[in-house]
DNA sequence: CTGGGGAGGGGGCCC
DNA sequence: TGGGCCCCCTCCCCA
């Protein structure tokens, strides 16, 4: 093919087989050629898929088998990108994936879109498709669904039926529009158009879109044949921002569990071994907080899914975590759940500097570790009372020992320091992170618990900390 | 190596 | 909507 003219982006080409001597000449716009070629290529691939030609990837959705081309899936879905790129060598003969978190019908819509650019959305399937697209990390599909729903809502508002509809902006204050980095290769000539019907509870049904309590684990366990890891890039990003050596953050899932105990006893002392470590931790904390904010800013715009139906056949609304397949009833619970992905720990213990995701966990920790609230002798495990159980202080750690154990151990082994009139009680003061005084320097102490019981409550001052402001000089 | 206990983390749900 | 409680699970330490 000879290039005969160059008009910038829209180059003109002579049709194949035509010489410059032939008249009349037929000219082709390069953009038209590109579109035609892409369309034809996609059509060919779709035809091959339907004829199961060269299909090298199997996807099992609730027992129904779909055949596809791994390169097409790779190019279309972040989930498959991760799945296929983490195979043994990326070139293994057969790759398969199994899904139980959405229905075969929903995956049919997704697959048809991948191979045709036509997204068959309706008021009946939009939530399911959006949920599946979120799982498969297909941002362009999510955006289509979002626009679809928004269009429905516009109509709904006019009909004063907004109560029965989902507003994305309303259901998730932290959502933002994500970048559509793959849209060029995926969108094509989409057939999405404003929905003709209202999207209401009545015509919204999404049984299979509901994800149960343990679906995260189930999904993780069942979704991958070749890759047992998390399906989400965002999840990976969330994990990435959490330094396993950082005592202030834990890892999601199993990593989190693994790191939990490791930091449990090391964090309080090691974090204050010197000023440099304090600075490092604060710096790391700031970076983590910033990354957490970035993470929030890049959340996929999907939050609402229809759960199961109640007795009145009304669907029960649930909120879906953008990082995993977990769904919750309340937005507040989702907000709480998100902390396990972002690593946010806004509640530091002023006594030992350990941080917690929840105030109740901090309070429990403080009462158990620093206030010796447990009426059990630490040595012999016998029940004690506030009278018989003497409080032993070890640094900021406090626990009780019965009189017998105190005598048996002897005061020589347990440095005793009367705490009468003690003002040294560790205070659960939050908000002045890293300023707790000398808990590691403090020696062992034994005290009666009367004053402890009295003043412990007064020392419980709670103030949530915003990490991002801690670094202010 | 194993089982028990302590501690922390997370989900559901009530107020 | 946030706080708080209850329950369950996991991990680590230790005997």
UniProtKB/TrEMBL annotation:
Domain BTB intervals: 55-123
Cellular localisation: Nucleus
Main location class: nucleus
UniProtKB keywords: DNA-binding, Metal-binding, Nucleus, Phosphoprotein, Repeat, Transcription, Transcription regulation, Zinc, Zinc-finger
Lineage: superkingdom: Eukaryota
Gene3D superfamilies: Classic Zinc Finger (3.30.160.60), Potassium Channel Kv1.1, Chain A (3.30.710.10)
UniProt xrefs under Pfam families: BTB, zf-C2H2
A GO MF label: RNA polymerase II cis-regulatory region sequence-specific DNA binding
One GO cellular component term noted in the UniProt record for this chain: nucleus
SUPFAM superfamilies: beta-beta-alpha zinc fingers, POZ domain
Segments forming domain C2H2-type: 319-346, 347-375
Membrane-spanning intervals of the chain: none
Bias (Basic residues): 257-267
Disordered as annotated region, ranges: 178-280
Keyword Phosphoprotein: yes
Compositional bias annotation for Polar residues: 218-233
Stored InterPro entries: BTB/POZ_dom, SKP1/BTB/POZ_sf, Znf_C2H2_sf, Znf_C2H2_type, ZnFinger_BTB_dom_contain
Keyword Transcription among UniProt keywords: yes
Chain's role: May be involved in transcriptional regulation.
Name recorded for this polypeptide: Zinc finger and BTB domain containing 8A
């Amino acid at each position: 093919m000879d290039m005969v003219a160059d008009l910038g982006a829209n180059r003109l080409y002579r049709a194949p087989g035509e010489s410059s001597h032939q008249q009349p000449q037929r000219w082709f716009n390069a953009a038209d050629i590109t579109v035609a070629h892409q369309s034809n290529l996609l059509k060919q691939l779709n035809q091959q898929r339907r004829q199961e030609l060269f299909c090298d990837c199997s996807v099992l959705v609730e027992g129904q088998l779909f055949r596809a081309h791994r390169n097409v899936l790779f190019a279309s879905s972040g989930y498959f990108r991760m799945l296929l790129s983490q195979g043994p060598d990326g070139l293994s003969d057969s790759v398969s994936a199994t899904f139980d978190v959405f229905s075969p019908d929903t995956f049919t819509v997704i697959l048809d879109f991948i191979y045709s650019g036509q997204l068959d959305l309706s008021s009946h399937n939009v939530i399911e498709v959006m949920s599946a697209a979120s799982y498969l990390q297909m941002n362009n599909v999510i955006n289509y669904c979002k626009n679809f729903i928004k269009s429905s809502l516009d109509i709904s508002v006019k009909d004063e039926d907004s109560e029965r509809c989902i507003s994305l902006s309303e259901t998730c204050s932290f959502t933002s529009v994500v970048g559509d980095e793959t849209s060029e290769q995926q969108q094509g000539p989409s057939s999405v158009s404003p929905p003709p019907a209202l999207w209401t509870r009545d015509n919204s049904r999404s049984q299979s879109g509901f994800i149960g309590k343990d679906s995260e684990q189930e999904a993780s366990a069942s979704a991958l044949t070749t890759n047992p890891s998390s399906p989400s890039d965002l999840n990976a990003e969330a994990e990435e921002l959490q330094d396993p050596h950082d005592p202030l953050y834990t890892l999601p899932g199993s990593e989190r569990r693994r790191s939990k105990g490791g930091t449990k006893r090391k964090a309080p002392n090691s974090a204050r071994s010197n000023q440099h470590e304090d600075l490092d931790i604060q710096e790391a904390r700031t970076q983590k907080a910033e990354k957490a904010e970035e993470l929030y800013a890049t959340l996929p715009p999907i939050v609402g899914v229809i759960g199961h139906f109640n007795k009145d056949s009304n669907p029960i609304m649930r909120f879906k975590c953008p990082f995993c397949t977990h769904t919750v009833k309340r937005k507040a619970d989702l907000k709480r759940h998100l902390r396990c992905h972002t690593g946010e720990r806004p509640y530091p213990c002023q006594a030992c500097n350990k941080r917690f995701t929840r105030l109740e966990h901090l309070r429990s920790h403080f009462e158990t570790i620093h206030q010796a609230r447990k009426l059990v002798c630490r040595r012999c495990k016998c029940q004690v009372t506030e009278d018989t159980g003497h409080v032993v202080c070890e640094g900021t750690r406090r626990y009780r020992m019965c009189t017998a154990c105190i005598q048996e151990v002897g005061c020589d082994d347990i440095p005793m320091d009367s705490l009468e009139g003690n003002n040294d009680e560790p205070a659960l003061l939050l908000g002045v992170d890293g300023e707790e005084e000398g808990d590691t320097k403090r020696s062992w102490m034994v005290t009666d618990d009367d004053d402890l019981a009295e003043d412990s409550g007064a020392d419980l001052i709670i103030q949530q900390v915003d990490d991002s402001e801690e670094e202010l000089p």
